[in-house]
């Protein structure tokens, strides 16, 4: 998770009337909305699916259904993965009548019900009570306003009665179950304390303790930028908002500024081609622009022909890769390679290399985001005809509600 990011979790139990199996095809529309409407740097998206979904359909089929969403940034938690940690970190959960969605409500997390078959539940059950009190997803309406509404009107004690119903003896299930089982067998219990061992996740090969790493963004990115007017004695500041285009949809119309970070005027809509529209000075303090950034490993290689900025990561010789990428994709303006969690190397059209590195704050801590954002900020600066040398004293990139100060180094062509 990057500073300022919100975590939205999609959760489904198993069965034909679950969110994953709903006959109204809620899930495909939901996945498209998560991709199209939520900026990738402001929102982290995870999917937690019941193990029976994986075992019933097979991991290969489940991955195939979710592949495009994964390429657009969805993290799919494996069946034995750290779903508890994901749930604890979630800012919102979109779920159904399964136990994980219920647990989310019980710990005070905002819950939006995407599917809820009341007829399948005992009306007196705690889960049925969740269905009577939690708001419902409106699948044919934009998702982002619904999330904003959910978070704005939520109170941690909204489902306090569900917390009380979750367990009559918290933390005692191992002892109670062992006592019952040994009683049924007519045997005396062992003297050692009862406990539930943790399951090892074969995907990780160890005890899962953290949220899985975000998958690489292989989907094309439509990037909206704002260049704020340069204030004296302050580094230039550029706001960057990126939308993944992994499901074949164009970004949702911008809703205006992001809280506390983005400029006051709304961004221009992203173009459908690689050419950004002419830029004119805004009457406010921002100058909007747009471009398309495409990872070189994009599944649909035809999308590379639309790239203004070609991206890659973890190449053994990043400088050589940027040079070759500019040769292979002659239509693009820049090539950028993420070389570390806090660093990006960018080759300019004139062959110079620019290294962008997250600068430590006063406390020595670096607020990290995807370093490919740095390259988009540099593109926004360069396409306006501004000298890169003016960035040698630093650059501030604003994304996901957080400002990131960068150190800029320029080296001659090589």
Task: Give a written overview of the molecule.
This protein is an alpha/beta fold. It has two domains: 6-166, Glycogen Phosphorylase B (Rossmann fold, 3-Layer(aba) Sandwich), CATH 3.40.50; 221-411, no CATH class. 26% of the residues lie in helices and 21% in strands. It contains eleven helices and 14 strands. It has helices at residues 26-37, 51-57, 59-71, 83-89, 99-106, 126-133, 143-152, 160-166, 173-185, 318-328, 372-383; strands spanning 6-12, 43-49, 74-77, 92-95, 111-113, 221-228, 237-244, 286-295, 309-313, 334-340, 343-347, 353-358, 395-399, 402-411. A nine-stranded mixed beta barrel has the order 6-7-13-14-12-11-10-9-8. A five-stranded parallel beta sheet has the order 3-2-1-4-5. Strand 13 and strand 14 form a beta hairpin. The protein is elongated, with a radius of gyration of 24 Å. Residues 248-285 have low confidence and may be disordered.
| Order of strands across the main sheet | 6-7-13-14-12-11-10-9-8
Query: How many E strands?
Result: 14
Order of helices and strands: EHEHHEHEHEHHHHEEEEHEEEHEE
- State the end-to-end CA separation: 35 Å
Radius of gyration: 24 Å
Largest sheet: 9 strands, mixed, barrel
Overall 3D shape: elongated
Mean pLDDT: 85
Helix percent reads 25-40%
Number of helices: 11
Which class do the helix and strand fractions yield? alpha/beta
- How many domains, in number, for the residues? 2
Low-confidence stretches: 248-285
Provide the β-strand percentage band: 15-25%
Protein name: Translation initiation factor 2
Organism: Streptomyces paromomycinus
Biased composition (Low complexity): 270-288
Region (Disordered): 244-293
